[in-house]
Amino acid sequence: MGSPFASDLSGALAWLHVHGLPSTIGYNAVEFGANIVLFIPLDCMAGSLARGS
Fold it and tell me: Is residue 27 a contact partner of residue 10, using CB atoms and an 8 Å limit?
């Protein structure tokens, strides 16, 4: 948890766990998902630029 938002995220996850979010979803899962959400559009744009479309 090296992010400056780690404590906020931990608090939000704790609240979500109390309200039904499975405990298997933690900081690492959220970080992994965020990386996917960030990089898929970037990869699509880079692919489009490389093809010249």
Answer: yes
Q: What is the pLDDT of residues 9-44, one digit of tens each?
A: 899 999 999 999 999 999 999 999 999 998 998 888
Q: Enumerate helices (H) and strands (E) in the chain, giving the number of each.
A: 2, 0
CA distance 35 to 42: 11
Between residues 29 and 51, the one the model is more confident about:
29
Pick the closest to residue 31 from 9, 46, 7 (CA basis).
9
Q: Which two tokens stand for residue 37?
A: 């959400």
Phi-psi region of 24 (alpha: psi -120 to 50; beta: other; left: phi over 0): alpha
